[in-house]
Amino acid sequence: MEIIQDKQTLQELLEGWRHHNDHVALVPTMGNLHDGHLSLVDLAREHAERVIVTVYVNPTQFGEEEDIDEYPRTMERDTRRLKKIGADVLFAPDDDTIYPFGIEEATVVSVPGLTQNFCGASRPGHFDGVTSVIARLFALMQPDVAVFGQKDYQQQLIIRHMTEDLSLPIRIITAPTVREDDGLAKSSRNQYLSDEERTVAPKLFQVLDAIGHDLQNGKRNFEELEKRAAKELKAAGFQPEYVAVRRAQNLAPPDRDCDEIVVLAAAVLGKARLIDNVVVTI
């Protein structure tokens, strides 16, 4: 595996791959890799001969109350894990490489509508930072495929919208959420949970999964299901930001004829802000 930090070296490598008609898959991350990230790399390998994993802690997606300096950086461990599973390149740029004119004068790529609610409402500007950095990585590498995780459901939907809206010839693939044995979605944020909170955390998935079963069993009182879930999470010790039953395609409110629904939630438990979702065909 090659470790690259500058644009020129990366683009020379990409040129060589394309000369041999190799397809390229991109897996963007902010590092601190866990098994969920590694599953994205495995899936990317199924769709391309070459896989690039980026590790870049993007400052533009952190809010005013979020301290980027506290974000865990585990480059040595990440490098070992990526070598072990056979990534071709670890691209680890600095801020000047991604934002050559500086962050204050950087072009912003913004997706209206989809970014306004849910995580977009509680983290203003976050998704503008995400789409702006992903657009830059897409422009720099021009991958054939890019892989994102289902756990960040709203994010992958926004990136799909951006890619289609800008007519980018990149196929977006969503990988299933990887879970612990007790159902908790694997996340870098889980490390902020105390031992006691860790025993409570799987309740988030359990509550969402129960709504999914209710929907499959014919219940359509969506608002009542949301309120019940929020109440159960509060009783378990969470501070719910939202619990929502929405159309899986575009996060619009569903009607009784909707055939694919996502149940998504964000909730704070101790110092950890956890997100999860369940997609249901009804």
Characterise this structure.
With 282 residues, this protein is α/β, with parallel strands linked by helices. The chain has 2 domains: 2-175, Rossmann fold, CATH 3.40.50; 188-281, Pantoate-beta-alanine ligase, C-terminal domain (Pantoate--beta-alanine Ligase, Chain: A,domain 2), CATH 3.30.1300. Helix content is 39%, strand content 20%. The protein has 10 helices and 9 strands. The protein has helices at residues 7-19, 35-47, 75-85, 95-98, 119-122, 126-141, 153-165, 195-200, 203-216, 222-236, and strands at residues 2-4, 24-29, 50-55, 89-91, 145-149, 171-175, 239-247, 260-269, 272-281. The strands form 2 sheets. A 6-stranded parallel β-sheet has the order 1-4-3-2-5-6, sandwiched between helices. A 3-stranded antiparallel β-sheet has the order 7-8-9, with helices on one face. Helix 2 (35-47) links the parallel strand 2 (24-29) and strand 3. Helix 6 packs across helix 7 (153-165) and helix 9 packs antiparallel against helix 10 (222-236). The model has no long low-confidence stretch (mean pLDDT 97).
Q: Can you write the helix and strand succession as a string?
A: EHEHEHEHHHEHEHHHEEE
Distance between the termini: 44 Å
Classified in CATH, the superfamily of the largest domain is: HUPs
Enumerate how many helices there are, as a single number: 10
Topology at a glance:
Layout: E1 2-4, H1 7-19, E2 24-29, H2 35-47, E3 50-55, H3 75-85, E4 89-91, H4 95-98, H5 119-122, H6 126-141, E5 145-149, H7 153-165, E6 171-175, H8 195-200, H9 203-216, H10 222-236, E7 239-247, E8 260-269, E9 272-281
Parallel strand pairs: 1-4, 2-3, 2-5, 3-4, 5-6
Antiparallel strand pairs: 7-8, 8-9
